[in-house]
Amino acid sequence: MRKRIKPTDSWISRSKHEIENEDNILLCRTIILEIVNFIKENNLSNTEIAEKLNVSPQYVNKLLHGQILDIDTVSKYKQILFT
User: Fold this and answer.
1) Residue 77: CB partners within 8 Å, gap ≥ 6?
2) What whole-number distance in Å separates Cα of residue 7 and Cα of residue 74?
C-alpha cells in the first residue's frame, strides 16, 4: 500500500495566501512581464536596471523571476523605468 503524502504547512499557507491575493499577484506578474519586455527591447543588463532602481543586481534577478510580488514595489519600479 502506498503512503499518502501530506502537504506541508508552508505549502498550505502559501497556497491560501496566493488564492486570497490572486488579483494582486496577477497584476504584479503582468507588470513584471512589461518590465521584462522593456529590458529586452532596450537591451539592458540586470546591473543597469539595478542602478536605475537603486537595488542590487541580485534583487533585480529575484524581481524578474517573480520572487518579488508586492504590488507597490513592482508599480514603483515600473514608474521609475518607464519615465
Assistant:
1) 35, 53, 63
2) 30
Please check whether residue 69 is in contact with residue 25, taking contact to mean a CB–CB distance below 8 angstroms.
yes
The yes-or-no verdict on residue 52 having pLDDT over 80 is yes
Instruction: Pick the closest to residue 39 from 53, 18, 24 (CA basis).
Output: 53
Q: What is the mean pLDDT of residues 33-40?
A: 94
Q: 6: which 3 cell numbers?
A: 501530506
- d(CA 15, CA 12) in angstroms, rounded, equals 5
- The CA distance from 15 to 10, in Å, is 8
Measuring CA to CA, which residue among 4, 3, 25, 5 is closest to residue 14? 25
Say which residue the cell 520572487 belongs to: 67
Alpha helices by DSSP H, listed for 1-83, are 9-20, 22-41, 46-53, 57-64, 71-81
The whole model's pTM is what? 0.74
